[in-house]
Design brief:
By secondary structure, the chain is α/β, with parallel strands linked by helices. The chain is built from 23 helices and 16 strands. It is globular, with a radius of gyration of 22 Å. Bound molecules: pyridoxal-5'-phosphate. The site of pyridoxal-5'-phosphate has 17 residues, from helix 13.
Length: about 500
């Protein structure tokens, strides 16, 4: 199995290279040249396996330059019961709301309580093996600019992984107190965390600049290091996300909720379009999915795109209570467009260039037609988000976070609009305790909130009786290890000095 760039089909690499490199030299994203089809026998094996077994089967279909032992080693190290609180890292919680059945796929039982753990717990292992195959003997330096969740998940994934170092930058006033404390107390000998005076864009621009400054790369090379990336366009982050959709389907069959072969719908709270794309890729492998329901918050650029075929990021940016979906450029959409245009690299490049220069592009009628047929786009604002959290908790005693609530609300809209009652899987992307303030406001409107984030966690626990995930509960007493703050234009010097090569 080989991979090529979405912007140049002639740029062909192995999976190890795709993972080690992160992004193609032409700026395109790596995609599999074709999608392996799951056979009847594969499905039998998947139905009879646990999560790890399912992951191994799916990984081996895509990572043909990895041995079975290498894949097994990655999977066994990543999805331990210790890290994910049980043998199934992605369990389904089944409930109902106003007569609609909800199958909530809880993807937040990992060490940082957000779904990014599902990929970032395994990426470091895939990456170190990929580096060994492609750039043997070098150490990977991971630079991350984060607005919160990704930074912590990447730190947890890479901590103390041999031959890697990770440096995370976050905007000094741009993350929640909980997220800041999560990062500043990070353990591990190979990790560094630094705040920058500036916003997320400044952090992101700074990281990109360091990546593309030849003198910095040369300096790393002289010291047997190279830059690599852990962001969501890396194939090594997308692939692990395919697994949980297949696994959820198997669990539905095994529990008798559906029969093997029945189609399901999926509902995904979407930001960068990685999570929902993974479900589409699962479908290309033969998983029977009828509809992809794409849920957005007030930053509804994807809702408009699905309805009109016009992607237009020239619009107001909203800061919402589902911050991981506050995105106007959904990078992974590029991979869907490439596929839907019949692997047309020229068209994909044209659209992405138009997005860069004009902030806007319009796809062809053919692509519009497929999107209309397979996707449904919907959105809701913060007040509908909180009303949904409250309704679901009051009616069913199920507590969800703000991102998941957006998905539940959009699913309700979908059922109302279409009458389609196909069994649906709703991706739940964060623990409610990760966004305690908004969730607490939702379940106890009018209550005076405690000042401190940890007191909010305790109060939410008192009101709902839902267990606080151990990684968040234990955070309060952890010593702060990092308190560096730097100017955005000093990031390069910070990196070189952190690596000891200034
Ligand atoms: C990252 C994130 C999302 C968005 O996922 P994408 O793959 O970027 O679409 C949704 N919810 C939470 C909690 C996240 O951390």
């Amino acid at each position: 199995m080989l991979y090529n760039s979405t912007q140049n089909v002639g740029e062909v690499v192995s999976s190890a290279q795709a993972i080690a490199q992160g992004i193609s030299k032409d700026g395109g994203l790596f995609v599999p040249q074709e999608f392996p089809k799951l056979s009847e026998a594969d499905f039998q094996a998947l139905l009879n396996s646990d999560y790890k077994g399912r992951a191994k089967l799916i990984f081996s279909a895509f990572l043909t330059d990895f041995s079975a032992e290498e894949i097994s080693d990655c999977v066994e190290k990543a999805y331990t019961a210790e890290k994910f609180g049980g043998d199934n890292p992605a369990p389904l919680a089944c409930t109902t709301l106003d007569g609609n059945e909800l199958n909530i796929l809880e993807l937040w039982h990992g060490p940082t309580c957000a779904f990014k753990d599902m990929a970032l717990q395994i990426l470091p292992h895939l990456l170190t093996k990929s580096l060994k195959k492609t750039y043997d003997g070098k150490d990977a330096v991971i630079l991350v600019a984060t607005s919160g969740d990704t930074g912590k998940a990447a730190l947890e994934g890479f901590k103390d992984v041999d031959h890697t170092k990770i440096i995370v930058f976050y905007p000094v006033n741009g993350v929640s107190p909980m997220q800041k404390h999560q990062m500043n107390t990070q353990e591990g000998e190979n990790v560094k965390v630094c705040a920058i005076r500036g916003n997320f864009d400044d952090a992101q621009t700074g990281v990109k600049k360091i990546f593309t400054t030849p003198e910095v790369s040369e300096k790393l090379a002289e010291n047997n290091m190279l830059f690599s990336s852990a962001n969501s366009i890396n194939w090594g982050r997308l692939l692990p996300q395919i697994v949980y959709y297949v696994s959820a389907y198997c669990d539905l069959v095994n529990s008798g909720k559906i029969s093997f072969g029945d189609k399901i719908n999926v509902v995904v709270p979407t930001g960068n379009f990685g999570n929902i794309l993974a479900s589409y890729y699962a479908c290309l492998m033969g998983l029977p999915i009828a509809k992809f329901i794409c849920a957005s918050n007030s930053n509804n650029v994807l809702t408009d795109f699905i309805n009109t075929g016009i992607y237009d990021k020239n619009r107001q940016f909203y800061t919402t209570m589902s911050p991981s979906m506050d995105i106007l450029v959904s990078s992974n959409l590029e991979r869907l467009l490439y596929k839907l245009s019949g692997n047309n690299d020229k068209l994909t490049r044209e659209w992405m260039n138009a997005l860069k220069t004009e902030g806007k592009y319009e796809v062809t009628d053919e692509v519009k037609a497929v999107i209309k047929e397979k996707f449904f786009g919907g959105y809701c604002d913060d007040s509908a988000t909180q009303a949904t959290i409250k309704k679901l908790f009051d009616q069913e005693g199920y507590l969800c976070d703000t991102h998941t609530a957006v998905a539940v609300k959009v699913y309700e809209q979908y059922v109302e609009e279409t009458g389609d009652k196909t069994v649906s899987v709703i991706a739940s992307t964060a623990s409610p305790y990760k966004f305690s303030k908004s969730v607490l406001e939702a379940v106890a409107p009018g209550e005076t909130l405690p000042e401190n984030e940890f007191d909010m966690v305790d109060r939410l626990n008192e009101l709902t009786n839902k267990p606080v995930p151990a990684p968040l509960a234990g955070l309060k007493n952890k010593p702060v290890r990092f308190s560096d703050v730097t100017e955005a234009n000093e990031m390069q010097n910070y990196v070189l000095s952190a690596l000891g090569i200034d």
